[in-house]
Amino acid sequence: MSRLNVNQILALILAVFSVIFLIGAYQIPAFALPRPVDSDMFPKVLGYSLLILSGMLFLEKPQERDIPDADAQAESARLPLLLRPWSRVIITAIAIAAYALLLEPLGFVLASTLLSVGLTIYYGYRRHAINLAVSLGVVLALYLTMTKFMNVHLPPGVLPI
Amino acid sequence: MDALNNLMYGFGIALSPMNIVYVFCGVFAGTIIGMLPGLGPISAIALMIPITFSMDPSSGLILMAGVYYGAVFGGSTSSILLNAPGISGTVATSFDGYPMARKGLAGKALAIAAYSSFIGGTLSVIGLMLVAPLLSKVAISFGPAEYFALMVLGLTAVVSLSDKSLIKGLISGVVGIMVSLVGIDHQTSTERFTFGSAHLLDGIDFLVVALGIFALAEVFYMLLRGGGGKEQPRSAIGSLKLSRSETRQILPVAGRSSILGFFTGVLPGAGATIGSFLGYSMEKRLAKDGDTFGQGNIKGVAAPESANNAACTGSFVPLLTLGVPGSGTTAVLLGALLVMGITPGPAMLEDRPDVFWGVIASMYLGNIFLLVLNLPLIPLIAKILELPRALLLSLILIFCMIGVYGLAFSIYDLLLLLAFGLLGLGMRLFGFPAAPMILALILGGIMEQSMRRALQISGGDWMVFIEQPISLTLLIIAVLSVAGPLVRKAVKGAQARQAG
């Protein structure tokens, strides 16, 4: 059996998703009074539509741009693990998740400055004083604008601002 | 005469000191954000939405309209200076703008872009002012069946005109509608796809999705493509002055392309990108020196720039009169309006003339600001392009996060933002267009309600969508817009097989 192409793998993932969605759609309870169209009809139509579209995607030939660039992959493999492009995405995603969890205990100013300064250093910028000044300046300006002028109260956290 | 009186009323609103400040801030911020490669008007508007939370709706829309055409103009700046269009609507500008910059004529190219944008913007606002009230009068007779058909057409048009795979566009649209169904069904109060989570009862806010699949996904994409520290070489800007003969050359080009751009923008699905390419190719065909297009011809900058700005204004016609956005950007604008408690549509002219005419008048002001203030500031604003990319990416992340957190002060929304950011990255990598998803997310709920209301009225008879001539026509066009490209592709495939 030949290997599946990118579109076929995506189509299988989407087909599984549409089946899960359809299971959810069939579990939507009926409304007490009979109606021409109940809450479950539209989700069911969408679920089946996605299933049909997955089938069509399975048969569609992938375009050149859908296939990852082999040269770029080989080049990135020469970089240290933490600096490879995918590592950057994963570490940024972890940093965002950590930011979300620490935002309220630490406060907006501290958490945002830490995130901005930390990620900027990680992305390779080495002028730390400029990094700190710009990050803190922008974050403070945002905090003061939101809380003082627009009544959007961001968490103050541990800093007495 | 009526239009003139209404416009004066609009100017009364737009010329209030605070609204003038908002127009300027919008145009200025839009120019800066639009200039950053990758971040287009959708991200710019989505990033600005939290700022409008506490504003009066007319001021909020005035600010965001300014951001919109500021972002389009900003996109042309990076097209000309870096050959890196900030948005797809300014790709055509780079064909002749960048060669001009390479010849040391960047200032001239920027000035032509600004003047042409001004002409495009101003002529199309006149078009908007004349066409919108007429269309509103027609649309006021629309019932739920017509609205449902109109939304189906809006969605299929955006899908069929996206340059990527039609099937992937349709999948993107279907997933967008699926996301819009999460939460409580307003007709029956039934929970759908909430998985017992209280956070999902109100559904998923469109801003979380918009910032996730556009702005955050763009940051991830830049990281993946090694957009860390490398800065691109930048040309010197040079003089911004145009000679008389140059002005005489670009005026008719800008006039023609503006009219073409406006009507392209009015059509659902066709926006600034298609408008600018049509304007460029039309002028290339008409010009005596058409063979020099692509080598730094000033008409090659004037045509796409006037057309893309005119198309932006044109795209406000379906948004303001029908309440149906024809593009991803106007879909985000619609979402922002709904957050502010304004429902655009035919009744808006009667119910909220302040918003409608205030925005139109502010567009005149915005175009003047774009020309008088932004143009001299361009050499200064272009310095933003020199800001280290690493710092810029981190700050964009903070902007995304504050925008989403400010919605409901929910950590849960931040985690959802991250999830949509990763989804957006996946969509980008595998060729799924994002605009149909955001359009479907915003239209999905209204679409379902219109469909159910129509069936309620007809007692469950599905023929209601076919018996009404307007809804039938709209549905036929919708089917043709999707079937056409599929049939063409099948025929081409068959021909290729025969030739092979």
Biggest interface, CB < 8 A: A-B, 65 and 62 residues
Q: Give the ordered list of helices and strands of chain B.
A: HHHHHHHHEEHHHHHHHHHHHHH
How many domains is the backbone of chain B divided into?
A: 1
Rg over C-alpha atoms of chain A, rounded to the nearest angstrom:
24 Å
Sheet with most strands: strand arrangement of chain B: 1-2
H/I helix tally of chain A: 6
Strand content of chain B: under 5%
Helical amount of chain B: over 70%
Give the class of chain B from helix and strand content and strand pairing.
Answer: mainly alpha
Task: Count the E strands of chain A.
Answer: 0
In terms of quaternary structure, the protein is heterodimer
Transmembrane segments (chain B): 20-49, 61-82, 109-131, 138-159, 165-184, 204-224, 259-280, 319-343, 355-378, 390-412, 418-443, 464-483
InterPro entries (chain B): DUF112_TM
Pfam family, one (chain B): TctA
Organism (chain B): Aidingimonas halophila
Polypeptide structure, described:
The complex is a heterodimer of chains A (161) and B (500). Chain A has 161 residues and is an all-alpha fold. Chain A has helices at residues 6-26, 41-59, 70-77, 85-106, 108-122, 128-149. Chain A has two domains: 6-67; 77-149, no CATH class. Chain A contains six helices and no strands. Chain A is flat and about 60 Å long. Chain B is an all-alpha fold and 500 residues long. Chain B has one domain (2-499). Chain B has helices at residues 2-14, 17-35, 41-52, 57-82, 91-102, 106-139, 144-161, 166-180, 206-224, 244-266, 272-286, 299-314, 316-322, 328-339, 348-351, 353-381, 389-408, 411-429, 435-457, 464-467, 469-499; strands spanning 183-184, 191-192. Chain B is globular and about 70 Å long. At the A-B interface, helix 1, helix 2, helix 4, helix 5 and helix 6 of A face helix 8, helix 9, helix 17, helix 18 and helix 19 of B.
